[in-house]
């Protein structure tokens, strides 16, 4: 079984003169137990690819398969359940709730999903990311790098099979990049998850099993 697959995916925004082709005939697969990196410059289509991969937006044409199921054939409700139960998103906009303290962001997950990480596993992640002293703060009180690490913990907390990360290290210094790279690799190699990271941060290359390059919406595998 293939965990994630894109087959001949195109994404076109707008029409006429303002038309932008963000993805062109993209083919991609990702399996459990692997960390895949997609590298590309700003505007190359990384966020578009990642959000299509996780069913957050639809492709113009082509197939998007999650665990061999064509996402376009699912109802809105089924797509929502799939995202809730199987996919952990770390998005560029961080998706933290502004009026909740960090601790409460995690508690919120408990209200919609039961089988989240045990307290023990979660505190190991919190320790690794060095965010234990931030749990009583509001998102507005955090630096960019702190927000980024909390968004990562928040995505891992529901223990998803698939982790999709958009520039998870953009705001981090080199030491933290190693921590996050190692954590994402452990999620793949030890916890057997499918981890896909889109980034322009080449510091993450050493942690990846597979590497793709995205240039002007064209994807090619380089490792
Ligand atoms: N909702 C949208 N409507 C119109 N054009 C869009 C939309 N989203 C993205 N685009 C365009 O598609 C192209 C790819 O955008 P995308 O956000 O995927 O790039 P990116 O590689 O993630 O860039 P960055 O590194 O800056 O985050 C860009 O030309 C962008 O302007
Ligand atoms: Mg982006």
- Which fold name corresponds to the CATH topology? Rossmann fold
Number of helices, where a helix is a run of at least 4 consecutive DSSP H or I residues: 6
Number-wise, the strands total 10
The CATH C-level name is Alpha Beta
Q: What strand line-up does the widest sheet have? A: 6-7-8-3-9-10
Order of helices and strands: EEEHEEHEHHHEHEEE
Rg (C-alpha, Å): 17 Å
Spans where pLDDT lies below 50 across 5 or more residues: none
Distance between the termini: 21 Å
Count of structural domains: 1
Percent strand equals 25-35%
Bulk shape: globular
Mean pLDDT across the residues is: 94
Class by SSE composition = alpha/beta
Name the CATH homologous superfamily.
P-loop containing nucleotide triphosphate hydrolases
* Helix proportion range: 25-40%
What is bound: which ligands?
adenosine-5'-triphosphate, magnesium ion
Task: Write the CATH architecture name.
Answer: 3-Layer(aba) Sandwich
Main beta-sheet strand count, sense and barrel state: 6 strands, mixed
């Amino acid at each position: 079984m293939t965990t994630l697959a894109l087959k001949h995916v195109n994404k076109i925004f707008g029409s006429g003169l303002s038309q932008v082709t963000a993805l062109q005939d993209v083919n991609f697969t990702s399996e459990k137990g692997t960390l895949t990196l997609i590298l590309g410059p700003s505007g190359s289509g990384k966020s578009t690819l990642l959000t299509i991969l996780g069913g957050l937006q639809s492709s113009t044409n082509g197939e998007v398969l999650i665990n061999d199921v064509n996402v376009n054939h699912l109802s809105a409700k089924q797509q929502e359940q799939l995202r809730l139960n199987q996919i952990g998103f770390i998005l560029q906009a961080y998706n933290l709730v502004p009026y909740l303290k960090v601790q409460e962001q995690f508690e919120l997950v408990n209200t919609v999903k039961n089988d989240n990480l045990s307290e023990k596993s979660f505190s190991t992640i919190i320790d690794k990311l060095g965010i234990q002293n931030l749990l009583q703060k509001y998102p507005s009180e955090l630096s960019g790098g702190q927000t980024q690490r909390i968004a990562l913990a928040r995505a891992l907390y529901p223990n998803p099979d698939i982790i999709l990360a958009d520039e998870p290290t953009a705001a981090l210094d080199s030491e933290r990049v190693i921590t996050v790279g190692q954590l994402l690799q452990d999620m793949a190699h030890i916890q057997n998850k499918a981890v896909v990271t889109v980034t322009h941060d080449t510091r993450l290359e050493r942690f990846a099993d597979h590497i793709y390059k995205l240039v002007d919406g064209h994807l090619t595998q380089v490792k």
